[in-house]
Amino acid sequence: MLKAESGTLLFTTGAGAIDPYPMLATVNIAQAGRRNFAINLHNTLADDGIYAANVAINLMIGA
Description:
Elements: E1 7-14, H1 25-45, E2 50-57
Parallel strand pairs: 1-2
């Protein structure tokens, strides 16, 4: 099913995926799930030259 011989998948989330904010509890759960998915995807595909990563951006809009 995989046709690419190499490549990178980049996922972005907020910092709540790593260090949760109480006011964003429900969003943090979704972000943590996406981060976990990216890490597991990387662990599965890295041997085939396909890398996955998650970038958590810790900045409030308007800051």
